[in-house]
Design goal:
Length: about 200
Amino acid sequence: MTDIVLLPRITAHIIEGCRMERLAICGLGPDRPGIVAGLTGVLYVLGGNIEDSSMTILENSFTWIVIATLPDGVETSTLEKELSKLESAMGVRLFVLPVQKSSSVPEFGYNPEPHLFTVAGRDRTGITYRFSDVLARFAVNITDLHARTIAGQDGPVYILMIEAQTPQNIDWPALDTELNLLASEMDVEVRHHAIDSAML
Protein backbone atom coordinates (compact mmCIF):
# COMPACT_ATOMS: atom_id res chain seq x y z
CA MET A 1 0.00 0.00 0.00
CA THR A 2 1.27 3.47 -0.89
CA ASP A 3 1.83 5.75 2.08
CA ILE A 4 0.03 9.09 2.10
CA VAL A 5 2.57 11.90 2.37
CA LEU A 6 0.96 15.20 3.32
CA LEU A 7 2.42 18.63 2.74
CA PRO A 8 3.43 20.76 5.73
CA ARG A 9 0.32 22.50 6.97
CA ILE A 10 -0.50 25.86 5.40
CA THR A 11 -1.77 28.33 7.96
CA ALA A 12 -4.64 30.26 6.41
CA HIS A 13 -5.00 33.80 7.65
CA ILE A 14 -8.65 34.49 6.91
CA ILE A 15 -9.35 38.19 6.68
CA GLU A 16 -12.42 40.05 5.58
CA GLY A 17 -12.62 40.22 1.82
CA CYS A 18 -10.11 37.40 1.29
CA ARG A 19 -11.08 35.20 -1.67
CA MET A 20 -12.12 31.71 -0.69
CA GLU A 21 -12.60 29.22 -3.51
CA ARG A 22 -15.53 26.87 -2.87
CA LEU A 23 -15.20 23.34 -4.19
CA ALA A 24 -17.13 20.09 -4.13
CA ILE A 25 -15.03 16.98 -3.59
CA CYS A 26 -16.90 13.83 -4.63
CA GLY A 27 -15.61 10.35 -3.98
CA LEU A 28 -16.38 6.66 -4.31
CA GLY A 29 -14.41 3.63 -3.27
CA PRO A 30 -14.33 0.39 -1.30
CA ASP A 31 -15.22 0.88 2.35
CA ARG A 32 -12.18 0.78 4.63
CA PRO A 33 -10.79 2.58 7.68
CA GLY A 34 -8.85 5.80 7.07
CA ILE A 35 -10.72 7.29 4.11
CA VAL A 36 -12.25 10.15 6.09
CA ALA A 37 -8.97 10.85 7.89
CA GLY A 38 -7.11 10.89 4.58
CA LEU A 39 -9.50 13.29 2.88
CA THR A 40 -9.86 15.67 5.80
CA GLY A 41 -6.11 15.51 6.37
CA VAL A 42 -5.46 16.80 2.85
CA LEU A 43 -7.82 19.72 3.44
CA TYR A 44 -6.24 20.41 6.84
CA VAL A 45 -2.68 20.76 5.57
CA LEU A 46 -3.85 23.04 2.76
CA GLY A 47 -5.68 25.32 5.21
CA GLY A 48 -9.04 24.30 3.78
CA ASN A 49 -12.33 24.52 5.65
CA ILE A 50 -15.18 22.00 5.39
CA GLU A 51 -18.54 23.79 5.11
CA ASP A 52 -20.83 20.83 4.50
CA SER A 53 -20.50 17.12 3.92
CA SER A 54 -22.44 13.92 3.39
CA MET A 55 -20.81 10.52 3.73
CA THR A 56 -22.45 7.11 3.65
CA ILE A 57 -21.98 3.48 2.65
CA LEU A 58 -23.90 2.21 -0.39
CA GLU A 59 -23.66 -1.56 -0.77
CA ASN A 60 -19.95 -2.09 0.00
CA SER A 61 -18.79 1.27 -1.30
CA PHE A 62 -18.04 4.40 0.70
CA THR A 63 -19.43 7.52 -0.95
CA TRP A 64 -19.10 11.15 -0.01
CA ILE A 65 -19.53 14.75 -1.08
CA VAL A 66 -17.66 17.48 0.76
CA ILE A 67 -18.15 21.21 0.21
CA ALA A 68 -14.96 22.99 1.22
CA THR A 69 -13.16 26.28 0.77
CA LEU A 70 -9.51 26.84 -0.03
CA PRO A 71 -7.69 29.99 1.09
CA ASP A 72 -6.33 32.54 -1.34
CA GLY A 73 -3.06 31.34 -2.83
CA VAL A 74 -3.91 27.63 -2.77
CA GLU A 75 -4.70 26.46 -6.28
CA THR A 76 -7.20 23.74 -7.13
CA SER A 77 -4.40 21.91 -8.95
CA THR A 78 -2.51 21.63 -5.64
CA LEU A 79 -5.55 20.03 -4.02
CA GLU A 80 -5.98 17.63 -6.94
CA LYS A 81 -2.32 16.63 -6.75
CA GLU A 82 -2.64 15.75 -3.05
CA LEU A 83 -5.92 13.93 -3.62
CA SER A 84 -4.31 11.80 -6.34
CA LYS A 85 -1.98 10.41 -3.64
CA LEU A 86 -5.03 9.50 -1.59
CA GLU A 87 -6.56 7.78 -4.62
CA SER A 88 -3.48 5.59 -5.03
CA ALA A 89 -3.18 4.81 -1.33
CA MET A 90 -6.84 4.02 -0.61
CA GLY A 91 -8.09 2.73 -3.97
CA VAL A 92 -10.75 5.43 -4.31
CA ARG A 93 -11.87 7.79 -7.07
CA LEU A 94 -12.07 11.51 -6.35
CA PHE A 95 -13.45 14.40 -8.37
CA VAL A 96 -13.17 18.13 -7.69
CA LEU A 97 -15.77 20.56 -9.03
CA PRO A 98 -16.21 24.32 -8.50
CA VAL A 99 -19.27 25.40 -6.52
CA GLN A 100 -20.97 28.77 -6.68
CA LYS A 101 -22.75 30.07 -3.61
CA SER A 102 -26.45 30.35 -4.40
CA SER A 103 -27.85 33.87 -4.34
CA SER A 104 -31.34 32.95 -5.52
CA VAL A 105 -34.28 34.02 -3.40
CA PRO A 106 -37.22 31.57 -3.08
CA GLU A 107 -40.49 32.76 -4.55
CA PHE A 108 -42.18 31.85 -1.28
CA GLY A 109 -41.06 31.06 2.24
CA TYR A 110 -40.50 27.61 3.68
CA ASN A 111 -41.48 26.34 7.09
CA PRO A 112 -38.53 26.47 9.52
CA GLU A 113 -38.93 22.85 10.64
CA PRO A 114 -37.98 20.15 8.13
CA HIS A 115 -40.48 17.43 7.29
CA LEU A 116 -39.88 13.68 7.07
CA PHE A 117 -41.73 11.52 4.52
CA THR A 118 -41.40 7.73 4.73
CA VAL A 119 -42.54 5.14 2.20
CA ALA A 120 -42.39 1.38 2.78
CA GLY A 121 -43.64 -1.56 0.75
CA ARG A 122 -42.85 -4.32 -1.69
CA ASP A 123 -39.88 -3.37 -3.83
CA ARG A 124 -40.88 -2.29 -7.31
CA THR A 125 -39.68 0.05 -10.03
CA GLY A 126 -40.61 3.72 -9.81
CA ILE A 127 -41.29 4.27 -6.10
CA THR A 128 -38.69 7.01 -5.64
CA TYR A 129 -39.62 8.73 -8.89
CA ARG A 130 -43.38 8.68 -8.37
CA PHE A 131 -43.29 10.03 -4.81
CA SER A 132 -40.62 12.64 -5.50
CA ASP A 133 -42.69 13.80 -8.48
CA VAL A 134 -45.74 14.35 -6.26
CA LEU A 135 -43.65 16.34 -3.78
CA ALA A 136 -42.17 18.44 -6.58
CA ARG A 137 -45.64 19.39 -7.81
CA PHE A 138 -46.36 20.81 -4.34
CA ALA A 139 -43.04 22.72 -4.34
CA VAL A 140 -41.63 20.51 -1.59
CA ASN A 141 -37.84 20.85 -1.65
CA ILE A 142 -36.04 17.56 -0.95
CA THR A 143 -32.89 18.11 1.12
CA ASP A 144 -31.97 14.54 2.04
CA LEU A 145 -33.01 11.15 0.68
CA HIS A 146 -32.19 7.63 1.84
CA ALA A 147 -33.45 4.44 0.22
CA ARG A 148 -32.75 0.85 1.15
CA THR A 149 -34.04 -2.60 0.31
CA ILE A 150 -34.40 -5.05 3.20
CA ALA A 151 -35.54 -8.66 3.41
CA GLY A 152 -39.23 -9.19 4.20
CA GLN A 153 -41.44 -12.22 4.79
CA ASP A 154 -42.93 -11.98 1.29
CA GLY A 155 -39.86 -10.71 -0.53
CA PRO A 156 -37.73 -7.56 -0.66
CA VAL A 157 -39.14 -4.46 1.09
CA TYR A 158 -38.22 -0.99 -0.14
CA ILE A 159 -37.78 1.74 2.49
CA LEU A 160 -37.65 5.36 1.34
CA MET A 161 -36.98 8.26 3.71
CA ILE A 162 -37.16 11.83 2.45
CA GLU A 163 -36.28 14.90 4.49
CA ALA A 164 -37.62 18.06 2.92
CA GLN A 165 -38.57 21.70 3.27
CA THR A 166 -42.27 22.43 2.87
CA PRO A 167 -43.71 25.75 1.65
CA GLN A 168 -45.55 27.86 4.20
CA ASN A 169 -48.55 27.98 1.87
CA ILE A 170 -48.63 24.24 1.15
CA ASP A 171 -52.06 22.64 0.71
CA TRP A 172 -51.70 19.71 3.12
CA PRO A 173 -55.12 18.11 2.45
CA ALA A 174 -54.43 18.07 -1.29
CA LEU A 175 -50.93 16.68 -0.80
CA ASP A 176 -52.21 13.98 1.56
CA THR A 177 -54.81 12.98 -1.01
CA GLU A 178 -52.18 12.67 -3.75
CA LEU A 179 -49.81 10.70 -1.52
CA ASN A 180 -52.49 8.30 -0.32
CA LEU A 181 -53.78 7.68 -3.85
CA LEU A 182 -50.27 6.89 -5.04
CA ALA A 183 -49.61 4.67 -2.01
CA SER A 184 -52.77 2.70 -2.77
CA GLU A 185 -51.81 2.37 -6.44
CA MET A 186 -48.29 1.15 -5.62
CA ASP A 187 -49.35 -0.97 -2.64
CA VAL A 188 -47.08 0.81 -0.16
CA GLU A 189 -47.50 2.75 3.08
CA VAL A 190 -46.69 6.46 3.30
CA ARG A 191 -46.35 8.60 6.40
CA HIS A 192 -45.02 12.05 7.15
CA HIS A 193 -44.45 14.35 10.09
CA ALA A 194 -42.61 17.54 11.01
CA ILE A 195 -39.18 17.14 12.58
CA ASP A 196 -38.82 19.07 15.80
CA SER A 197 -35.85 21.44 15.39
CA ALA A 198 -34.85 20.65 18.98
CA MET A 199 -34.09 17.08 17.87
CA LEU A 200 -31.67 18.18 15.13
